[in-house]
Amino acid sequence: MRIYGLIVSTALIGMALMLHGQDAAPPSVDLYEGQEQFEPTPSPLPPNGPELPEISQLDQTFSKPRSLGKEADAARVHIEWRQLKNRTVNDPQVQAAKAYAQAARTDLEKRNRLRNYYNIYYERMSALATTPEIKLALQGLKSSHQGMLAQPRVRPTPDTSTPTPTPSGTPAPKKPADKHKKKKEKRRKRF
Questions:
Q1: C-alpha distances out from residue 184 to 173, 175, 176, 178, Å
Q2: What is the rounded CA–CA span in Å between residue 118 and residue 109?
């Protein structure tokens, strides 16, 4: 039992010495008194740290929605367009322009009135649009709708005014029958 007590007392004394050995030196003691003092060299960084962007630049960077892909961007623009369309369709001026266009008597008159309607309709929508992407999409939709109103294959209306007389010195134009005779003669010669 004595040996056991001796081991325990030695362990306790060793632990007490270790605990007191960790005490710091008093602040009045200068441990580096005889050594040469090291002066830090000035760093190339400014005293307040690295150059940081302005808050407005950070706002612009983080306020832009990140692109999730071409299809996702197109879907987002489509959703915004539908919301604008729902808000604009009930506007009194837009409804009046549409009713005026539908009441046209002739096709030409209706196309002209529809052009006016599309101008009013898309101006209202672009005034409510918030992003430049949706404004570009609205311009594209407006041009496509107005492009459908054009009829490039329709002949222009004939001029109903009296034709101007030709001077007597110029020959009259050939009759179309003369052209057909020449073509028939050429065909006969080939065979």
A1: 20, 15, 13, 10
A2: 14
> Which residue type, as a one-letter code, is found at position 96?
A
Comparing 55-59, 126-130, 131-135, which segment has the lowest mean pLDDT?
55-59
- 3 state SS for 155-174: CCCCCCCCCCCCCCCCCCCC
Q: Mean pLDDT, to the nearest integer, of 164-173? A: 59
Q: For residues 82 and 22, what is the distance between their CA atoms, to the nearest angstrom?
A: 73
Segment 101-112 shows an average pLDDT of 92
The residues near 84 (Cβ < 8 Å, ≥ 6 apart) are 125, 128, 129, 134, 138
Specify the higher pLDDT residue, 24 or 87: 87
Sequence-distant contacts of 121-128: CB under 8 A, at least 24 apart? 121/88, 121/94, 121/97, 124/88, 124/91, 124/93, 124/94, 125/81, 125/84, 125/85, 125/88, 128/84, 128/87, 128/88
pLDDT at 56: 81
pLDDT: which is higher, 134 or 2: 134
pTM exceeds cut of 0.90: no
**Other beta carbons less than 10 A from residue 114's beta carbon:** 21
Within the chain, what is the greatest distance between any pair of CA atoms?
A: 153
